[in-house]
Amino acid sequence: MRHRLLGRTGLRVSELFFGAMSFYERDGAEATQRYRAMLDAYDEAGGNVIDTASAYGESENVLGELLVGRRDRFVLASKYTLSRDQSDPNAAGNHRKNLVLSLEESLRRLRTDYLDLYWVHLWDRQTPVEETMRALDDAVRAGKILYIGISDAPAWLVSRANTLAEWRDWTSFAALQVPYHLLRRDAERELLPMAEAFGMSVAAWGPLAGGVLSGKFTVPGGVEPGAATRVDAASLTAREHAVARAVVTVADELGARPSQVALAWTCARHAAVHPIVGASTVGQLIENLGAVDLVLPLDAIRTLEAAAEFELGFPGDFLAQCEADPWVFGTARLASRP
């Protein structure tokens, strides 16, 4: 697996991130053995970023146990914002108190004294972004966090936060986490261009659309009888079925698995995107990790995107028309920026 730099930092991160949300419960020795095998498979493939959160049940505790003796070889990431105690109004949000207490709790569970990457889990409309950025910077200066990122927030807010950080010599967000896959491309409107402008890495969560793009609802025998799935095949829309079939068609043509095609598309579309892969079995994970070796031909990308109807919307499509109109910028054409 190849590695890239995290945002405008010198930290090396693998193409695929490992999502440990599936480590939600402690189900005994057998489950722990399965979790360890998954982590070992990811490590052996060259992966080095593990993504979890304070709200992912027992995930941090499980990881703390599994990473004993090898914690430093991984880029360990966790998140805060979600409630630690629903009866306590200050046990949630992006304010300083919740950050400090959530971070200490995560460090204890993960059996470490620092996090490589700490995410703001989602935008808290009630907390001034200045408070959040200063509190994160304090944690960085204290050595408890090395880098920071933000998940599930509007582009204007992230832009404002990073601009404030630049002005005040605080730590800026190096990474953005958003849902992104063939069926959900709205991040292309504002979030991905913003991330590119700030040189941010992008972690894509749910890159298989809850399993819709894995072929489980399209390939015969894709869903095991009685298996738990996030979505029901009967609830899928015509568009979702069409895109899922297109993924399977391209996979068959390339001799690949549908999940590999779906993951490879997210990487091919934007170079800074890192899909977060998760799985319930080692076999699933190994299959997903195979996406790094798959190069999608241009015709395949066109086939996939033709099935996934998407309009950029205003102002993106309007500005693209303006750039091509000589009445706006004349007939001269500038070379694209590097």
From TrEMBL:
It comes from Actinoalloteichus fjordicus. Transmembrane segments: none annotated. Keywords: Oxidoreductase. Gene3D superfamilies: NADP-dependent oxidoreductase domain. GO terms for molecular function: oxidoreductase activity. The keyword Oxidoreductase applies. Residues 16-308 form the NADP-dependent oxidoreductase domain. This is Oxidoreductase, aryl-alcohol dehydrogenase like protein. InterPro entries: AKR (IPR020471), AKR_Detox_Biosynth (IPR050523), NAD(P)_OxRdtase_dom_sf (IPR036812), NADP_OxRdtase_dom (IPR023210). It comes from the Bacteria. One of its GO terms (cellular component) is cytosol.
